Amino acid sequence: MEKSDVATIYHITIPLTRTMALDVYERVLDTEASGDQSGIHDPNCSDEQEVLLATLASFFVYRRSAHYTFTYRRRRNFYSLPRAQHEILKKLNFQGTLDKLDECIEKNSAFAEAILKSGCKSFGIDPLSAENWKDLADSGDLDKARSTIKQFLRDWSKEGAAERERCYGPILKAIDKYYGTVVPPCEIRILVPGAGLGRLPFEICSRGYATEGNEFSYHQLIGSNFVLNATNKADEHTIYPFCLGFSHHRERDNQTRGITIPDVHPGTDLNKVLEYHVTDDCKTLPPGIYRYRPSQYFSMSAGEFVDSYNIEESKETYDCVATSFFIDTARNLLKYLETIRNVLAVGGLWINNGPLLWHWEGADATESRMAWESKKTEVKSFDQVEVNVEDAETPLFPPPTIMPQRALSGTHQHDVRHLLSHLGPSGFHGNHATSHQPDPSASAHQHSAEREWRGSLEFSLDEIYQLIQMYGFQIIERGSTKTGYILDEKCMARYVYDAEFWVAVKTHDVPDYISASFTTKPAKKRNDEDEDFEADVKDKGKGKAPQREF
């Protein structure tokens, strides 16, 4: 932060070497006992390690899986046709089309491997060892990798600007409407659960607000770290988001068209200096000129939303919670409502925009513990849940005899057991992603006692509005927006949602039957580092968020 001659702003600068990935692993390190920071030593962390490696592996095997699933299969179908039909399709240059699609897959694969290398660097993993643990990725992991690459279209391309305006625009306008007069805006703290690839928290923070994104999916976390910390300029990468879907194309060129990302360079925007003049009328700060960079007030946290924020130390720490395409990821919406209420200051706002495509619809709470423990625990991608013909073909691994096993480069590899025993935090080395430590007692994907209920409850919109009021929120604004999700404007079929928008203010009281259901966890036991951090918070005047009225 640059100091002016008059005054300096009170703020907390979270060290930029602390990261999303580091946070996940710090929670399971037994550093006091071992004094060793080289890796994970808690034997209960094997599941966490496997989820991480499966995520990284899905980007590693993207190339061979995409070729085998989409173009190799069609070549077999093409050559199995009767000779006369084979000749007809040669007139359409069908072979040339498959060659062009293979080129698109190759370029997407280079992008996937760039994400892989960035993620491996953040966790201190040698990407050349990926051949040893590639089999940890299953078809669900491959689907998430494909969906993540495609989501860059929505969040970080010029072509996605219209959809972002429909999805994020109402939220950003409401934030400016209710908080735009606060000077400096970093006095307002905003939490964005389900941050995905980080575009919404980026947009909020670039306006000057203190912003924290929260995300549970490793695919999304690694993808957001890549775009926030590992890109060097706008339009640096070209991807082909539609090349793996063969339905609804008016022209073949629509399927093979490329888009560039990112449309803006996050580092440039987040490091620009903002300047604000505080007058004598301000009740919280002395008058003066205040300058800061948005990056000083931007962070991302890794973890499940309820486990991370429905804790005593998060109580009333945010002025605003902004949710976009998020609430329908809940297995139990009541826990989301309780957590949002917990983190908001009295008078704080919950701003929402999104549909009701319940991601866990049909999940059975009576299913045996062994059955659900054997399943992946990450939230399903929106693309997975949406009925999409692109998902009709389950990604497959090619047999070893069909395609060569291709490593990124070089030949140096480590045995996977050696890797697992030494996998540890090295940090996301960048300027714009930092970490939050909501709960050191459990890893991001670990099952706590409170999360053993594995069913799903789905509500209609009118029921949700009733629940919002029961949980002590007053609706002060509502509307709807027609939007898609990663919508291809040039295709012949589109999924369009009437996304529901609302602004709700947290009131003081809730009925006894609601408060009786609250399960907020007690504050964690503090170590010396935590006490130093809290002392810094107190010294700089950043306690609970102030109460505001609208």
TrEMBL record:
Q: Where is this region: Disordered?
A: 428-449, 518-550
**What spans are recorded as compositionally biased (Basic and acidic residues)?**
535-550
Question: Can the keyword Nucleotide-binding be found in this entry's annotation?
Answer: no
Q: Which InterPro entries match?
A: CARME, SAM-dependent_MTases_sf
Please name the GO terms of the biological process aspect recorded for this protein, alphabetically.
methylation
- Which EC main class describes this enzyme? transferase
Name a Pfam family for this protein: CARME
Task: Tell me one GO molecular function of this protein.
Answer: carnosine N-methyltransferase activity
Q: Where is the composition biased (Polar residues)?
A: 432-446
Assigned EC number: 2.1.1.22
Query: Which keywords appear in this protein's UniProt record, sorted alphabetically?
Result: Methyltransferase, S-adenosyl-L-methionine, Transferase
Domain of life here? Eukaryota
* Similarity-based family: Belongs to the carnosine N-methyltransferase family.
| Record's protein name | carnosine N-methyltransferase
